[in-house]
Amino acid sequence: MKICHVNLASGYHGGENQTLQLIKQQAALGYELTVVANPKSPFVAAVRALPCRVVLANHYFAAHAASVTADCDLVHVHEGRAIYWALIQKLRHGVPYIVTRRIDNPLKKKWLANIAYRKASAVVGLSRDIVAKIQHAYPQLSPYKIPSSPVTYPIDETEVNDIRSRFKHRFLVIHAANMLQHKGFDVTIAAAKALQEQNANVHFALLGDGKAREQLETLAAGLTNVTFCGKQSNMGSWFAAADLQVHPSYTEGLGSVILEGLNSGLPVIASRTGGIPDIIDDHVSGLLIEPGDSQGLATAIMTVQANPQLRETLCAGAQQKLTSFRIEHTAELYQKIYQEVKSSL
C-alpha cells in the first residue's frame, strides 16, 4: 500500500505519538509512505528517522503539488486542520482520504468542515463516544471505531532507582498529562488533600506542564504529599517506578497515557468519561470513578494500596484487555479500510 499521512500540529502530544506508532508499524510491513507534517513539530524529526518521504507544510493551504500524492492510494488525516489539507488535495488532484478523529469534543458543523467530512471516503473514531459524536453530527456517515495503541517506552534502571529513592517508603501515585483544566489534576489534588492525614504513605507525583499549572500549584499549597515534577521525557522509568496511575479527566477522547500505564504493568484508576470505559472495565482492567469525584478517587487509591491481590487482578485483566489495542491489530484494521476505499474507486 502507498499511503500519505497528514498531521499538521505544531506541537507533539499523544495524537502525534499515535500517528508515529502507526507509521512505524506500516513501514515495518513494507508500506510506501509519505508524511506531510508541520516543520515546527518534533514529529518531523521522528518521521525523518523512518523510511518515509517527508513533505513540510505549516498550513493546510501549503504543499499541494500533484507530486506529493501522485503515487498514493489515499491520504490518511490524523489532526483537525489536516482534514482541510486532504479536502483541497482531493479537489485539486482527486486523491481519496480517510479521517481519524481523536478528540471527544462535539463536532462544530462549520461549512468547510461539513464539506470535508462529506467528501471523506471513511471516518474513524478512537472510541465509542467519539463515534457517537460523529454520527450525531453527520447521520449519513458510518464511522469505524479503531482505538489508539499503547506505546512502549524504554526503562532506565538508574532512573527508576533514583525515582524510588526520591519517594522512598511511599506508595507512589502518578498523574501524567498536559496540565489543562479537563485533565482533572484538581481532582487528584483534592484526593491528596483528603489523604494527607488519613494515609501518610501515599505520595502524588504530577507529571506534566501547561497553562493550568500555576493555578494547580496554588490549589496544592501546603500539601506535603504532592510533588510537581514537570513534563517528563522518561515515562518508561516513571511507569516502572510508580505503584499506581490515576487519570481522573473530565473529558477524554480515549486516554493513550492510560494504555501506556496499563501496558507497563501499572494498575490504573480513571474517570468514567469519554473513551476511558473502552479501555477500563471496572474492577476488571482497572477502577473507574465518576468525573470530579475526589473522595471516590481517594477511596479507590486506599483500596488499591491495601490490596495487593486486587492490584494483581487488575494488571492481569489489563493485559488481556490490551490485546485488542495492540498496534499489530489496529494497523490491520486500518489496512482493511484502506483496501475497501481502494477497491471502491
Automatic annotation (TrEMBL):
The reply to whether Ribosomal protein figures as a keyword in the UniProt entry is no
State the protein's name. Glycosyltransferase family 4 protein
Please list the residue ranges annotated as the Glycosyltransferase subfamily 4-like N-terminal domain: 14-134
Enumerate the InterPro entries for this protein: Glyco_trans_4-like_N, Glycosyltransferase_grp1
Q: What is the superkingdom listed in this entry's lineage?
A: Bacteria
Listed SUPFAM superfamilies = UDP-Glycosyltransferase/glycogen phosphorylase
- A Pfam family the protein falls into: Glyco_trans_4_4
E.C. designation(s): 2.4.-.-
Keywords, in A-Z order: Glycosyltransferase, Transferase
Give the GO molecular function terms: glycosyltransferase activity
Spell out the coiled coil positions from the record: none
